[in-house]
Write a structure and sequence with these properties.
Elements: H1 2-17, E1 19-23, H2 32-38, H3 46-53, E2 58-61, E3 67-78, H4 87-90, E4 92-105, E5 111-125
Antiparallel strand pairs: 1-3, 2-3, 3-4, 4-5
Length: 130
């Protein structure tokens, strides 16, 4: 009976163990609607953005002196086949969902514009995924 419990738990652990998140965890549940409620162009400040989302992953300046901050959140999940002996040799892979927010500020430190984009990528490996 104990052996059958482990047989059931092993695939479950493999699936749960195959998930990795990185970047700004504050971006995990954000979407266009939630950002519209939080960020008001011309009113929201750099300090408020930092309080809501933390420090940005990158900062840049345009030729007008406006600063742009970038926040990225990525979540990757491995295919179940990655954890099956020999199956991973013929077909395996990973799916990654990425959410990127850019916020551009006027020189007065207030939000000029912001943008949210999402992408989904899949990497396939193995003999049958060439």
């Amino acid at each position: 009976m104990k052996a059958s419990k482990y047989i059931v738990l092993l695939p479950l652990l493999a699936v749960l163990g195959g998930c990795v998140s990185s970047g700004s965890m504050a971006m995990k549940n954000e979407n266009t609607t939630t950002l519209q409620k939080k960020i008001i162009k011309g009113t929201t400040t750099k300090q408020q953005i930092t309080q809501m989302f933390g420090e940005p992953q990158s900062r840049s300046l345009d030729d007008s002196g406006n600063e742009t901050w970038t926040y990225v959140y990525a979540n990757s999940q491995s295919n179940v086949a990655n954890y099956i002996p020999y199956a991973s040799m013929v077909m395996s892979g990973t799916q990654t969902k990425t959410r990127t927010m850019t916020v551009t500020f006027y020189q007065t430190d207030k939000v000029k514009t912001y943008n949210l984009s999402e992408s989904q990528d899949e990497i396939r490996t193995g003999l049958f995924n060439q």
